Amino acid sequence: MMLDWKPRRPDMLIDPFGLGRIVQDGLVFRQNFSIRSYEIGADRTASIETLMNHLQETAINHCKSAGLLGEGFGATPEMCKKNLIWVVTRMQVVFDRYPTWGDVVQVDTWVSASGKNGMRRDWLVSDSKTGEVLTRASSVWVMMNKLTRRLSKIPEEVRGEIEPYFMNSDPVVAEDSRRLVKLDKSMAEHVRKGLTPRWSDLDVNQHVNNVKYIGWILESAPLPVLETHELSSMTLEYRRECGRESILQSLTTVSDSSVGDLVNVGEIECQHLLQLEEGSEIVRGRTQWRPKYAKSFGNVGQIPAESA
Amino acid sequence: MMLDWKPRRPDMLIDPFGLGRIVQDGLVFRQNFSIRSYEIGADRTASIETLMNHLQETAINHCKSAGLLGEGFGATPEMCKKNLIWVVTRMQVVFDRYPTWGDVVQVDTWVSASGKNGMRRDWLVSDSKTGEVLTRASSVWVMMNKLTRRLSKIPEEVRGEIEPYFMNSDPVVAEDSRRLVKLDKSMAEHVRKGLTPRWSDLDVNQHVNNVKYIGWILESAPLPVLETHELSSMTLEYRRECGRESILQSLTTVSDSSVGDLVNVGEIECQHLLQLEEGSEIVRGRTQWRPKYAKSFGNVGQIPAESA
């Protein structure tokens, strides 16, 4: 890694309102977030949605700080002219440790080229006090025409706007090259039907926000898994958008390759599919889960007496 | 109002991490929040849940800063010894103006006596730049025994802990003394059935957080109201708690007294009931809605051309 990730406490005072700023020769955007009481769940650790929201927020603020925000939400001025928007096609996240209430996390994000017509955005989330890495994420984005809803090449004018911001670095999460299988409704062991966007789930484009998809995917994970395990990593493939009228189903299958039974210690792997009731795939996903209290990196530890 | 509400910009630098601090001779707790992209909805303004979360967060941080937090979530050391927790019984909120993405709001909160065995907590939310009041809220809390789940008087030892923090002030929202009617299932025009807490809706006590109730209540408001109006005030009466196994129904009736039809300009009043499927009441509520773009204080303005 070519970057110097040591936390810089005195610098943080430059950002008293927590709105973030550009660091590292203008290529990395950094923002701190304190974890609030309403962002933690039953485990007293920050919820997945909170962590994913921090990623989304820094991505948008990065564009804004770099002067790359046109009238749209994350689109550059040239993209706005051409009715282009960014859509995420792939997201990989590794959760090493979950922060808890009162912790301050530092989120660093930057972009790179991804193939000929894509952009990769990486994030590195660390504990602002100790510098310990908490979460790593890597995502691929392409352009879509807002009117036709078809994918588009990156026009030269847009490339000229964004290329100066590209870093030349490897992804922070190595690409998971295993194919994501298409789950079959008849195969899926756990199904949540009739999921409908709430009014409050819609973003300013009247679309369901990517982060909500993740909530729905985890929704169909079996309760014994949620109770005994924590998400250690996930790979998501976004295949179609859904709107406010959509009715969704969330399917989950626990893989045969999972070690141990659900309520016991052992790593668990799940396959997921979020689809429209009529069958169109919205998101395919794969998640890995480690036993709670196992600490980071799959080091299986003891369950504290109070929760045993 | 005995307090001086002028915003004090230079002070804010004392709180670079946005964790808040005690001001006003030790009786008022103040914390700033910047509104993030994922906290705004389709209208580009902060969601009700976000605003209510800010109230919850400052209430807890107030107790923490005052050294009144035992092992529990908002309970004092003496309360912990006696297995007592705070439960909210009534909440009144007035939304004068909704903040938008990037705004920094200042939340002030303080407590007062409420009758013999209650505590009132007030909040005043203002724009940190201009000092304009955005939201006012007033709530009543009583004590419950965590084991028996029965209400309790305030024991003398607890009173000794909390009384030094009581302010002698009028509520920031005048009490709405109109009775909240019990909605009948057969009467209710809008019903959302089968609402179940998601794993992520549970707090550290494995209970559904008060703020989630509000989301469910607004869930059954008719879409034409949500599309054309914004919540201007609400009164809630919390009658029973619900746990993770609960299945709920959210009922709403638009009052006859509402002016104009739903999709037209005019103030709207709704009655709400959140209940268990078997009938037990969880929350009764009443909400007032004003046309969008009407600005504050019911001043009906013009709808901008782009959204007409």
From TrEMBL, chains A, B:
Lineage: superkingdom: Eukaryota
Compartments, as annotated in UniProt: Plastid, Chloroplast
Domain Acyl-ACP thioesterase-like C-terminal: 186-290
Top EC class for this record: hydrolase
Ranges for domain Acyl-ACP thioesterase N-terminal hotdog: 26-161
EC number: 3.1.2.-
Xref: InterPro entries: Acyl-ACP_TE_C, Acyl-ACP_thioesterase_NHD, FATA/B, HotDog_dom_sf
Keyword Lipid biosynthesis on entry: yes
Keyword tags: Chloroplast, Fatty acid biosynthesis, Fatty acid metabolism, Hydrolase, Lipid biosynthesis, Lipid metabolism, Plastid, Transit peptide
Entry's Gene Ontology cellular component terms: chloroplast
Listed SUPFAM superfamilies: Thioesterase/thiol ester dehydrase-isomerase
Predominant location: plastid
Keyword Phosphoprotein found: no
GO molecular function, one term: fatty acyl-[ACP] hydrolase activity
Function, in words: Plays an essential role in chain termination during de novo fatty acid synthesis.
Protein family (similarity comment): Belongs to the acyl-ACP thioesterase family.
Listed name of the protein: Acyl-[acyl-carrier-protein] hydrolase
Source organism: Gossypium lobatum
